[in-house]
C-alpha cells in the first residue's frame, strides 16, 4: 500500500523546484494532486500530463496565492473537482533581495504577500473542509533564514519567521480537531531560487554547511511526504530543518 493512497493534496507553486518535487513524490505515493502555478503555464501542463500517466488524478490551476479572492475560488473549484482535500502544502514563494537601505516598499510588500499572506489565504479557506472531515495535514515551507536572519533578506526572513508563528498557532487552534500543521525549513536547495546566486557566494555557503553541498528538491519532498502521511499522525506544530546540518 502506498503512503498516500486515496488522499488528495493541494500544493501551491508546483511548476518548478521544491513544489514540483513534492508533487512528483506525492503522486508516486498514490495521492491525487491539485497544484497551482503563477505564470509557468507550459511547465505546469507538462507536469499535469506526467502525473496523470502515473494513474492518479492531477490538475494544474493558475492561481495567485497572494490573492484571497483567487484562493477562495481555488479551494471551491478543487473541492468540486476532487470531492475532498486531505493535505495542503503552502509552498509558493519568492525572493526580492536587497539590503534594507536599498529595499523599497514594493519589494517588501511582494514578498510578504506571496510568502506569508498566501499561507493565511489557503489555510483559512481550506479549514472548513478539514473541520468537516475531522482531519487534515497542513505543511508550510518556511526557511532556516526565518530562524537566523540573513543580510539582504529582511523581507524574506520576516515572511518566513511569520510562517513559523502561524504554523504553531494553527497547530494549537486545530489540533483537537485532528488537523495537524507543521513547517519545513530548508537550507540551501538547488532550484531556480538558489541558482541565481553568484558562484563565489555559493562556495562561501558550501564552507558553512556541515554536509558541504546544497540539498536537492527531492530531499525536501521526502520530509513533506513524512508530514503528509500517517507516519506522522502525532506530529504537529513542529519546524523540521532540511539543511545538511547548517541550522543546529
Ligand atoms: P522556485 O524554484 O523559485 O519556484 C517557486 C514556485 O512558486 C513556482 O512554481 C512559482 O510559479 C510559484 N509561485 C511564485 N509566486 C506565486 C504566486 N503568487 N502564486 C502561486 N504560485 C507562485 O522556488 P523553490 O526554491 O522551489 O522554493 C519553494 C519554497 O521553498 C518557497 O516558499 C521558498 O521560499 C522555500 N525555500 C526554498 C529554499 C531554496 O534553497 N530553494 C530554501 C528555503 C526555503 P511560476 O513557475 O508560475 O512562477
Kindly describe this structure.
This protein is α/β, with parallel strands linked by helices and 248 residues long. The protein has a single domain, classed as Rossmann fold (3-Layer(aba) Sandwich). 48% of the residues lie in helices and 15% in strands. The protein has 9 helices and 7 strands. The chain has helices at residues 17-28, 41-52, 68-82, 105-133, 145-148, 154-174, 192-195, 199-208, 217-228, and strands at 8-11, 32-37, 58-62, 87-90, 136-141, 179-186, 239-242. It has a 7-stranded parallel sheet with strand order 3-2-1-4-5-6-7, sandwiched between helices. Helix 2 links the parallel strand 2 (32-37) and strand 3 (58-62). Helix 1 (17-28) packs across helix 9, helix 3 runs parallel beside helix 4 and helix 4 runs parallel beside helix 6. It is globular. The mean pLDDT is 97. Bound molecules: NADP nicotinamide-adenine-dinucleotide phosphate. NADP nicotinamide-adenine-dinucleotide phosphate binds at residues 12-19, 36-40, 64-66, 91-94, 114, 141, 143, 186, 188-189, 191-194. Residues 12-19, 36-40, 64-66, 91-94, 114, 141, 143, 186, 188-189, 191-194 line the site of NADP nicotinamide-adenine-dinucleotide phosphate.
Task: Provide a brief overview of the structure.
The chain has helices spanning 17-28, 41-52, 68-82, 105-133, 145-148, 154-174, 192-195, 199-208, 217-228; strands at 8-11, 32-37, 58-62, 87-90, 136-141, 179-186, 239-242. With 248 residues, it is an alpha/beta fold. It is 48% helix and 15% strand.
Amino acid at each position: 500500500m502506498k503512503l498516500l493512497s486515496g488522499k488528495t493534496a493541494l500544493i501551491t507553486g508546483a511548476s518548478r523546484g521544491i513544489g514540483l518535487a513534492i508533487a512528483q513524490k506525492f503522486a508516486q505515493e498514490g495521492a491525487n494532486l491539485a497544484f497551482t502555478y503563477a505564470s509557468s503555464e507550459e511547465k505546469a501542463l507538462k507536469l499535469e500530463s506526467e502525473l496523470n500517466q502515473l494513474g492518479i488524478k492531477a490538475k494544474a490551476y493558475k492561481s495567485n496565492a497572494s490573492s484571497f479572492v483567487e484562493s477562495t475560488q481555488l479551494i471551491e473549484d478543487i473541492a468540486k473537482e476532487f470531492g475532498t482535500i486531505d493535505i495542503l502544502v503552502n509552498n509558493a514563494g519568492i525572493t526580492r533581495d536587497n539590503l534594507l537601505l536599498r529595499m523599497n516598499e514594493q519589494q517588501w510588500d511582494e514578498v510578504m504577500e506571496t510568502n506569508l499572506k498566501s499561507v493565511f489565504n489557503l489555510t483559512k479557506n481550506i479549514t472548513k473542509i478539514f473541520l468537516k472531515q475531522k482531519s487534515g495535514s497542513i505543511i508550510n515551507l518556511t526557511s532556516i533564514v526565518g530562524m537566523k536572519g540573513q543580510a539582504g533578506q529582511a523581507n524574506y526572513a520576516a515572511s518566513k519567521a511569520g510562517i513559523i508563528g502561524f504554523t504553531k498557532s494553527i497547530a494549537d487552534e486545530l489540533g483537537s480537531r485532528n488537523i495537524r500543521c507543521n513547517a519545513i525549513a530548508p537550507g540551501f536547495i538547488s532550484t531556480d531560487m538558489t541558482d541565481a546566486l553568484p558562484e563565489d557566494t555559493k562556495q562561501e555557503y558550501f564552507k558553512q554547511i556541515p554536509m558541504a553541498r546544497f540539498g536537492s528538491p527531492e530531499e525536501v519532498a521526502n520530509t513533506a511526504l513524512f508530514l503528509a502521511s500517517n507516519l506522522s499522525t502525532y506530529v504537529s506544530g513542529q519546524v523540521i530543518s532540511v539543511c545538511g546540518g547548517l541550522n543546529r
